[in-house]
Amino acid sequence: MYTAASAGDLGFVQVLLERNPLLVFGEGEYGITDILYAAARSKNCEVFRLLFDFAVSPRFISGKGGVVVEEHVGDIPSVYRWEMTNRAVHAAARGGNLKILEELLANCSDVLVYRDADGSTVLHAAAGRGQVEVVKYLISSFDMINSTDHQGNTSLHVAASRGQLATAETLVSAFPTLISLRNNSGESFLHKAVSGFQSHAFRRLDKQVDLLRNMLSGNNFHVGDIINDKNNDGRTVLHMAIIGNIHSDLVQLLMTAPSINVNISDVDGMTPLDYLRQHPNSASSDILIKKLISAGGMFGCQGHIVQEKP
User: Fold this and answer.
1) For the CA atoms of 55, 56, 61, 62, what is the dihedral angle to 10 degrees?
2) E strand map for 120-270
3) Mean pLDDT in runs of 10 for the chain (310 residues)?
4) What span, in angstroms and rounded, lies between the C-alpha atoms of 251 and 239?
5) Which of 41, 135, 274, 308 has its CA 20 to 30 A from that of 52?
6) Cβ contact 48:85 at 8 Å
7) What CATH number should be reported for the domain holding residue 66?
8) Continuous segment of H or E residues that includes residue 31
């Protein structure tokens, strides 16, 4: 069923459902959420509508009097119907199927009720998958730009952590004040862009690098306003990049940001240079140490500028 849904093959989906209507709930590693997402990505709206109908109103095959007939389960609890709708809405948002999403939200009085297990809204879902048109529709149709998930992340935090430059630019362009919002850990979206390199969802180095380079260029906002912001541990994005042992080129990219302060100490009194010194000796770490010192870097614990060794 997942393969048929991914291909947008309406005929094959119909054949499978005729044989066993319960296949809509998936088999093996793919469940109903995966199948709806696959259907949304296929952009075949008829396939999505058919699968959603079978999901929200389950039916089964029975053989009464030797005749095989399709029967509905009976009264469907409202909580079940809502859950299926919630999954469908998120699948449409993540899959970028704007037409289906508009249909599902046509009579919605409160779009913020549709959240996943992490508290993510459909705006989070679309932003994290780079679905620009869906993001534009949601922020222009609903008052949800400041919505946060259970960790306090906005849709911009999510877009940044996934390297989704296009959606990040769309969000910042429409609502510049988003750059000032922090999550529950005190992190700006730049913190999330850096921590995204260690995320379990991290996939593409080039996408993450492009996002950081673009955001640090100052074309979308004044970088100096947030480049030195601290999270709840007192750490800046430069701290996080060094602690996370991110590629040296990216650390150097951060160091070129306008107004960056390379000597901010965290709650433990540690500067970026202190953390860099803890790294195992390597050619790249030696280069970074020299560059940080050249930029005026200090060891926080010693409280004085370290002179570069000849």
Assistant:
1) 150
2) none
3) 97 95 90 97 98 92 56 78 97 98 95 97 98 98 97 97 93 94 97 79 68 83 88 96 83 88 95 90 83 85 44
4) 9
5) 135
6) no
7) 1.25.40
8) strand 30-31
Task: Give strand pairing partners of 299.
Answer: 304
Res 305: pLDDT: 43
- The whole-number pLDDT of residue 245 equals 77
Confidence at residue 306, expressed as pLDDT on a 0 to 100 scale: 43
Q: Length of the chain, please?
A: 310
pLDDT confidence of residue 266: 96
Report d(CA 46, CA 48) in Å as an integer. 5
Distances (CA, A) of 13 to 1, 16, 19, 63, 81: 7, 5, 10, 22, 22
Q: Phi and psi dihedrals of 265, rounded to 5? A: -100, 145
Task: Answer whether residue 5 is part of any domain.
Answer: yes
Judge whether 16 and 26 are in contact, CB under 8 Å: no
Residue 67's pLDDT is 46
286 domain-assigned = no
The residues, ordered by sequence, that sit 6+ positions from 136 with a Cβ below 8 Å of its Cβ are 170, 174
Q: Would you call 71 helix, strand, or coil by DSSP? A: strand
